[in-house]
Amino acid sequence: MTKLAQWLFGITLFLSIWLALLKDLTPIKVTDENFLWISLIPVGLIALFGIISLIIIAYRVSTFNNCDEAAKELLKEIDEAKKDLATKGFKFK
User: Fold this and answer.
1) Cβ-based neighbours of 18, under 8 Å, separated by 6 or more
2) Cα torsion for 13, 14, 16, 18, to the nearest 10°?
3) For residues 27 and 37, what is the distance between their CA atoms, to the nearest angstrom?
4) H-type alpha helices, 23-67
5) What is the pLDDT of residues 17-76, one digit of tens each?
6) What is the rounded distance in angstroms from the CA atom of residue 24 to the CA atom of residue 9?
7) Closest to 30 in 3D by CA, of 17, 11, 43, 42
8) Is the dihedral of CA 70, 75, 81, 83 positive or negative?
9) I need a labelling partner for 82 at 20 to 30 A (CA). Which of 25, 46, 65, 93 fits?
10) What are phi and psi of 21, to 5 degrees?
């Protein structure tokens, strides 16, 4: 099963259960005070997704590796390109 199929299956399962609870199609009866919380579940899940995404991005940025060798090689290639362009008449400021 592909990752897309897994996500679609999970979303479909969640939506079917959530809508069944909202439409009162389950043997579990939902009271008025619980109806508000059940109707806000998708908002909470989206907020949770956003918070987890921010945490993952912050972690990956903080653990990003510096490649000193690659930086030196890139600077060397830039210098070579500048010299090549200077021989062809390009002037740098």
Assistant:
1) 38, 41, 42
2) 160
3) 18
4) 32-39, 41-62
5) 999 999 988 888 888 888 999 999 999 999 999 999 999 999 999 998 888 999 999 999
6) 22
7) 17
8) negative
9) 65
10) -70, -40
